[in-house]
Amino acid sequence: MRVSVAPRAPSGRHVRRRLGSALMAAAMVGTALAAPVAAAPQSRTVDRTITVGPTDLGGTIYHVTGVISGDITVTAEATLTQPIRETLAYDDAFLRQGQTLGVGRSVATNGPGNLHVTWHVVTDLPVIAGTFDTSANKACTLSFTSPVPCGAESTGFELIPNPLNLLQPYADLVLQADVKVTPDDATVDSTELAGVVTIGGPESQNEPGTQDVEIPCTTGAGDILSLSDADYSLATHINSKNGPAIDAGTWVGVPPFVTKLSLGQLNLGPQHAESFTENIADPTVKVTALGPIAANNIAPHASAGGPYVGKLEGVPVQFDGSGTTSICGFDSLTLRWDFSDGGVAFGTHPFHTFADNGVFSGLLTATDPTGLSNSKAFSVTVGNQNPVVDAGPDTTADWGRLVAFNGQATDPGAGDQSTLQYTWDFGDGTPTASGGSGSGVFHAYASPGPGLGGSYVATMTVTDKDGGSSSDTRTVFVTKRDVTAAYLGPTAAIYDTGTSFSGSLVDEYGQNVGGRTIRFSVGGAGQAMSATNSSGIATASWTPTQDAASYPTDATFLGDSLYNADSDAGNVAIARKGTSVTYTGALNGGPNKTVGLSAILADATGTRLAGRTIVFVLGAQTKSAVTDGNGVATTTLQLNQKNAIYPLTATFAPAGGDVPHYLGSSDAKSFNLQKK
């Protein structure tokens, strides 16, 4: 049996239409498919005729011996026709979209059938030769419960024609055939046709039963449901009789009243019989219209699953609509999820992400192919999540320089992102900085840090509007500043003559470094130290005590907690210090008289020099004296020269240790040596 559905044509005629097949459950969870109160049983009677054949029965050769001899070749074919009737019973209350219509089948009944056999005879008997056809019909009604033999026998035909003379022999040939039809595979093939509802099968034709016709919701309301029976199949066992019978005798009587006088049957000699089995299907189709399909009147039952609690903002939530049921079948439904945050999703297990915490509502709407729908409300409890904070990479900066703090944070709940509050603790005890962003914040550290490598740990804390908070740290390595020390002078100096060292200290950013001590050295030996002023200049008094020569110099800053050390080299040339001799003794005297000679020795800065030898030369006479503590050299000279005016000099010529320190000096006078 096949099922087809045809839309009702405008003219009222039934036009056969094939529909897509689908298996539908007779009942879905939570949906009762009870029959309507007003049941309407219906029945349809289906009549059809099975035609089996014509079937070739094969051929047999018979050898005739006796009074006449020769061969008889017989071939035959048989055709069996059999009317069948069955009753289909159903309740058209279930002739509706989404319902299962039970179609009861009665035991098939048979009307009188007919077996028709045709024989083809070829003989070479001497008395008559040629080709003859003969046939026979036999009433035969099949049974679907046990084999039914149907035998057919031909009328005799003369092998020896009626002679004009009496008492001539005759021979008549009578042919027989047996057809036995068994109920094996006598079924209705209920295969599925494309676009036709599957009703199962094959169903045995010889047993009563009920076939369930599931009507999809995709079938159009008002379309005609039809059952199409086809492919009746019978297994037939067709056998020829074991040889024909030949009735032999003689003709008696006077024409035209000649008759046969049988004298018995002739011996046909060696014979054999043929047996055939044919599985024959009747391909004709019988369509039985059961009636129009009513529209579905049972809405789906929506099940939104849940409860949905303990969910988190920013994390996809999976929903479960698998509990939804429909007589149209779950796979045919459209499931739409509407969420109170404006989101929409579709399907059995969709995901939806909530951008903020809170209690959200939703509505699941299930719609079947017939347009009926049902909705189910649900709620989702979503918890807050702390922001994810990144304070940024570690960095290095000199003290006093602005450090950029560009941290960032992402809140799993997109609704909290714009509400995030950022707080920076710089780790040096200074006030924290707060704002609506983790970037654009600057801070200068007053000194290198106390941690390893002079580090500070800065902490960024981010808090959302719901109080969720997270922190992250970054290490700021605060370093000393580099400086440039410069030796500014002097480049020349005089022994034992006061002068000043000068140097400068500037950091790497061009800022003068004040209050730092610069040490000055000459020839590797420290000479003086001085603190820089606000202009970064250090000045130190220095009186050279080194021998006159050229010496390397340097200005060195040893560094401290804020600045790295640096030095600068220079050169200073120390010259011998000048001296002056001032003659203070007598400038005249008489012959052979004793006069006093004296002179004062002082350096270029006026300091009297003690312990130095002054040589007095008066004309040809020379006398020397050593300066006392006041730098005064005093001696006497007895004049032994002639009267005249003589040059007088008092000279200091450095000797010993004074040679690298002082320059010599002299004072010249005129001495009048005359008698008074």
Explained architecture:
- It is built from no helices and 51 strands.
- A hairpin with a 5-residue loop joins strand 34 (455-463) and strand 35 (469-479).
- Mean pLDDT is 80; it is low at 1-39, 183-206, 239-243 and 269-275.
- The chain is rod-shaped, with a radius of gyration of 71 Å.
- Strands 2, 3, 4, 5, 6, 7 and 13 form a 7-stranded antiparallel β-sheet that branches.
- It is mostly beta strands and 676 residues long.
Provide a concise account of the structure shown.
This protein is mainly beta and 676 residues long. It is built from no helices and 51 strands. The strands form 13 sheets. Strands 2, 3, 4, 5, 6, 7 and 13 form a seven-stranded antiparallel beta sheet that branches. Strands 8, 11, 12, 15 and 18 form a five-stranded antiparallel beta sheet that branches. It has a five-stranded mixed beta sheet with strand order 20-26-25-22-23, with no helix packed on it.
